[in-house]
Write a structure and sequence with these properties.
It is a single chain. Helix 3 runs antiparallel to helix 4, helix 4 runs antiparallel to helix 5 and helix 5 packs antiparallel against helix 6. It is built from six helices and no strands. It is mainly alpha-helical. Helix content is 83%, strand content 0%.
Amino acid sequence: MKPIISLTLVFLMYLTPGFSQQKPEQMIDSLIAIGKSHLGRPDSLEVYANRIYELSDEYKYKDGKAFGAKMLGISAFYQAAYDQSITRYRESLDLYRE
C-alpha cells in the first residue's frame, strides 16, 4: 500500500507546474530530498531511489545516479538483500569517484 502512495506522490509532483518546470538536476535533487525522509521505510525508499537512479541516468546526472545507487543499497540492506546492497554501494562509490 505504501509504494502505491509513494508512486502517487511522484506522479502528482510531475503534474504540479512548478515542479515540472525545473531543470532535470533540480527535479532530481528534490526527489533526493523527499527520498531522504523515507530512509526508515525500505519499500518507499526503493521507489524513490529507482526513480532518482533512472532519471539521473537519463539526464546524465552522475551525482544523482550515485546517490540513487546508494539509496538502493540502503533499501536492499534493510530488506536483508546483502549481496545486492554491497553491489549498489560499490556502484555508488565508483560513480562518486568518476
